[in-house]
Amino acid sequence: MGRYVIRRLLQTVVILIVISAITFFLFWATPANPALLICGKNCNSETVAQVNATYGFDDPLIVQYGTYMQGLVSPGGRTIGSEGSERECAWPCFGESYQNGIPVWDSISDAFPATLWLAVGAAILWLFFGVLLGLIAALRKGKLVDKLSVGLALFGVSFPTLVFGYLLLFLFIVKLQWLPFPDTANAALFTVGPVKWLQFYILPWMTLALVFAALYTRLTRANMIDTMNEDYIRTARAKGLDERTVVFKHGLRSALTPIVTIFGLDLGGLLGGAVITEQIFSITGLGKFAIDSVLSNDLPAIMGVVLFAAIFIVVANIVVDVLYAIIDPRVRLS
Amino acid sequence: MTESVTSAALPDARAGKPFLEVKDLQVHFPTDDGLVKAVNGLSFTLERGKTLGIVGESGSGKSVSSLAIMGLHKGSRAQVSGEIWLDGSELVSMSVPEIRRLRGRQVAMIFQDPLSAMHPFYRVGDQLTEAYLVHNDAPKAVAKKRAVELLDRVGIPSPQKRFDDYPHQFSGGMRQRAMIAMALMCDPQLLIADEPTTALDVTVQAQILDLMMDLQKEFNSAIIMITHDLGVIAQMTQDVVVMYGGRVVETGNVRDIFYRPEMPYTWGLLGSIPRVNRSGDGRLKSIRGTPPSLINLPKGCPFQPRCDYQQYVEGHSCVDELPELLQIATGGHRVRCHIDSEKRKQLFAEQIKPKL
Amino acid sequence: MTLGVSESQSPEGDLPADHLAETSEAKQIEGRSLGQIAWARLRKDKIAVISAIVILLIIAVAIFAPLIVKLNGFPPDQFNRTDANGDPLLNTRDGGIPIGGLWGSGTSSEHWLGVEPQNGRDVFSRLVYGTRVSLLVALGGTILAVVLGTVIGMVSGYFGGWVDTLLSRLMDIMLSFPTLLFIMALTPVIADRGQDLFGIPDDNRLRLGVLMFVLGFFGWAYLARIVRGQTLSLREREFVEAARSLGAGPAYVIFRQILPNLLPTLLVYTTLLIPNYITAEAALSFLGVGIKEPTSSWGRMIADASDWIESNPLYLFFPGLALFITVLAFNLLGDSVRDALDPRAGRS
Ligand SMILES: Nc1ncnc2c1ncn2[C@@H]1O[C@H](COP(=O)(O)OP(=O)(O)OP(=O)(O)O)[C@@H](O)[C@H]1O
Ligand SMILES: [Mg+2]
Questions:
Q1: Where would I find the ABC transmembrane type-1 domain in this sequence (chain A) (predicted)?
Q2: How close, in Å, is residue B109 to chain A by CA atoms?
Q3: Where are the domains of chain A?
Q4: Which of A205, B96, B214, C284 is deepest in the core (most CB within 10 A)?
């Protein structure tokens, strides 16, 4: 088990290095001239040269990559800027924004909580409703409840986040006026209190959760139906166990195991996947930060948020694998 | 609580009735392609302390019948009709909560495929104790002691340690034996063994069969032994049912089946036993053709398309008419065949026996 | 939102290669091939038939967009200020919202679905042309993803060894990318460089190509994994072994023996990937990194309309509905195809 974890950790480190390199080279190699992006309108050959020197754009890409990674790996961070205007960039250093000079990490850590709340709330919603609906559907297979859940799930899967989000916004905020228009200030639980906070987040949670809830309904249903047809379920019944024990102890245990994996991966991917929801409901999270950076061509910010999201996915991957190994003895002991 | 079911049945009513009586059992599965008639009018009886063998080729409805006795078709789409009397109670019409109290305690089953019949996520020992604790209000330690004891008796080495293993850590044969131990946890009065020794090598197979016979003597249990292996039948059973296409085609005591078989299908089965001292051309004969479709059962004899002896029946009754399961002489020997009984005896003596 | 067909939609669970091969062996007995059985099942499935008709209609709309737009006579990027009578369409003093029509959307006998606020462009015409963008990007991206996924998956599964190790790691890495973020970040960057790289200015023709490319390029890994798994198990089957022992080369085995057995999986995956990419294109255009003005795209229309959600909700409603119906139709068809190809469907 311990060895398994270590091996996975090493693999993870390799994957992270590869991803960071790909990301770095793709973004840094592509723009014709990053210096032009920085000095903008008041560019002349002199300023460009100066910018190039300041940001090290003259160095070969590989050196630039090395410098960049140093900021992420070395506990002391790194220094930014040319001689005379040197600044410390504390660990973890994702560079500074071209737009406003703010360290990218500061922006990311500012934006992170909003996205985290969004992701966690949505995840609870979809996990609860998805598994519940899927379970009921599987146990009442072919009955009305089943058909209803299957239909609902198909409907949900086909509801683009974009459309569903605006539908909710229109219905509950514009039309019925049950909820106020989203105000970023209300995203902070500890300053505005739970009521405003919940009012702020409830629609985004629903928006983000819908597709996943639908997918998990289908997944749980399919897994549960397959599991209940397994021979070991028949064995459990043959022992004389009552149906509740058969379903919950023997059936659900197996049916939910693959869902753990998928849940971890979905949650890991959510940091990057919440962009649309954040845009619709004006949540100043990572997604919004990302899209703003993209639209303003702010390379270090883009690079930073992409890498951060990738790290999250990779970490989620390994957590899921270890969790799976704990749940399934066949993986753990082989 | 567990006693109530048995004691509820009036002892008087039971008197003279066999311990297990299956009457005209039918199990049909509705599917997209049509109604699969897996079992069609199966009848047999079995007394305590006795063993009944069921033979028949793959797909003849052996497992489906035994699941019906366990009541395991309830809650599925299967349509079960007929009667199953066990110790004075009728099982087909019994509700699920009622039959659940019998499962594992009064009737237990050793399933055919031990690879998939155990839950992969729970320890073997826990799966065994669970079977005990459902029916016995006992502390866990007692259940564990019983489980270890049974694991030991079915020949699992160092059972104390193996108790904590997961099924995938067991070999196929060990899993099979653990399944047997599981079925025996509550000393069932009726044990249904669905090909219990198929996965085992010959020595272990012999041990397991001995063990089952020991247990039978000890608890006076009845056993239904389902197998392809006619050797096992000969060694273990008193009565034999030969199934074909969901029907009994011949039944009788072991001697009837081995020495006086009258149904061409039984002849075929006997002809396919490997023997060292086989006379004739010495080759194993398999029965030609394939089993009948259970969706469109033939109108006549189910074995007719594969039968080599149709010419001994006049007219088209083999094709048109389902032969009845008729009693021959005295005793329980019954055969389902249109050929005249005398002719069958003659055919067996002249054509079949010399080649066996 | 997720890009690509997510785990729970995946055809993998329901269509193990074993089942497929079994069915093809059963062919002689039943006299009907899997394809014929599936086709018969599909034709009996009302939902499948209806969604197929809807999809065909949508495709027809995309193909005949110029003709359809001739019906009402308003090109999609024409600014309309006045109606046929010369009365103004837009209230210039009130920020340019349409005058009259249902819920202030400017619907009339000329402008069936109303006009865009501020510009007065015809919503119906823009919606019709938006169909083209949606389908084109989704189809292009899907084809690229499926081709890449199939080839890489088959090569990985068939050759094994270090090739497999390498390609499998590549799949892991591709699957670890925050896909949507990456595509979002990369699309403008690539489009930006179009001039230098391909000599094409950053117009919407280039953007269409870039969208197809990034969607396809980041979408193949999951399919490759499925294909690899099935190839691995197909490779061990008797008919492949037999062909190899008779001296068949890898190309023959891969394309003539393995590929045909993968077709059901590919078909299901394709029908489920298309709606995902339709959503993705809408999302990217919505975020402002996809199709740009003046070409119309449903995602852009939703983004534009979101500013008018209070005064003119219908403007938001139409592209939303178009998107929903299209995605739903593809998903329904995909589900039906999967059920029809599943040999276990309807049993037990
Ligand atoms: N749930 C079901 N739905 C439809 N058909 C079924 C079902 N269960 C069993 N059958 C069919 O019933 C027939 C009898 O199956 P059964 O398992 O009893 O055979 P068997 O005699 O035990 O064969 P084997 O020796 O291979 O174990 C088979 O043709 C099988 O396909
Ligand atoms: Mg069987």
A1: 112-324
A2: 7
A3: 32-89, 104-331
A4: C284
